[in-house]
Amino acid sequence: MQALTAGQKKQKRLLEIMSGFESAIIAFSGGVDSTLVLKAASMAGIKKLLAVTSVSESHPEADAKNAVRLAGLMGVEHRLIKTNELADERYSSNGPRRCFYCKDELFGRLGEIAREGGYEHMLDGSSLDDAEDYRPGIEAARAHGVRSPLMEAGLGKGDIRELSRALGLDTWDRPSSPCLASRIPCGMPITAGELMRVAMAENVLKKFGFREFRVRDHGDVARIEVPEGELEKALSLRKEISAGVGKYFRFVCLDMEGFRSGSLNKIFLNGRDK
Question: What is the pLDDT of residues 110-127, one digit of tens each?
């Protein structure tokens, strides 16, 4: 018998974790992580399965549309729910635990659906790599009894993309798409207007063909992050980008360090390491 590869072993472990579940709700963003969880849940034969996607000002509109598409392709029941984290001052004041209150709102709503519909488990797409970043949302998940199968199976981002590709999921190389509030530095209040202008500014970069990027909101200043290998492209388009993003910000600058996921979390990570 041919020995299993490391990837096959992790896939086997992932399916084993969920194979005993009779029913489950999945917090489904349509990103690479939660899409793999949904696919694995379907493969594991969970009889009663529901994917739930949050819709709010904090998330790009395209993400919800993509989630609807993916759930439809997998033939999984799907529901869009409106969350209202902006109404919670603890979230909108944008303190260090902002993500906790956002996820607390989401998982609280999922818990209500689970109780009303008789779903046994709530699942999310957190992975091993998330534990290495500043993620208060993981604490919220645990407080609500949410399980993270990818983390339990020992899957990191590289494993998830590799396994997603092997399973034919078109999300395997999709750039990460965290909530729009992640572009706003801690302490700067979050409003619907701020989130909208970040979304509009990032749409400018999409039109120029950039796939992975961030527009960090520093008040009057938009700080643009693109991958290091695309800095020259961004510079060659500086006039066009400045004109487009400049409709929403007074000043537009390009971060010469390039794209770094969670770059605004540095202060928390440094503090945690002390």
Answer: 999 999 999 999 999 999
Write out pLDDT tens, residues 208-239: 999 999 999 999 999 999 999 999 999 999 99
What is the residue whose two structure tokens read 């500086």? Answer: 238
The full set of domain ranges for the chain reads 6-166, 180-266
Spatial distance between the Cα atoms of 23 and 117, rounded to a whole number of angstroms: 10
Which CATH class for the 180-266 domain?
alpha beta
HSE on the CB side for 176, CA within 13 Å?
Answer: 18
Q: Which residues contact 232 (CB under 8 A, 6 or more apart)?
A: none
Nearest to 40 by CA among 171, 228, 136, 139: 171
Q: Are 17 and 154 in contact (CB under 8 A)?
A: no
Instruction: Give the span between the Cα atoms of 74 and 210, in whole angstroms.
Output: 28
**Is the CATH number of domain 6-166 3.30.70.1270?**
no
Identity (one letter) of the amino acid at 72? G
Residue 269 has pLDDT above 60, yes or no: no
Q: The whole model's pTM is what?
A: 0.90
Which DSSP category does 171 fall into?
T
- pLDDT single digits (tens) 155-167: 999 999 999 999 9
**Torsion sign, CA atoms 112, 118, 120, 122:** negative
pLDDT tens sequence across 240-259 = 999 999 999 999 999 999 99
* Mean pLDDT calculated for residue range 97-105: 96
Task: Answer whether 155's CB lies under 8 Å from 15's CB.
Answer: no
Instruction: Tell the burial category of 89 from Cβ atoms under 10 Å away from its Cβ (0-12, 13-18, 19+).
Output: exposed
- CA-nearest of 183, 184, 239, 178 to 208 is 239
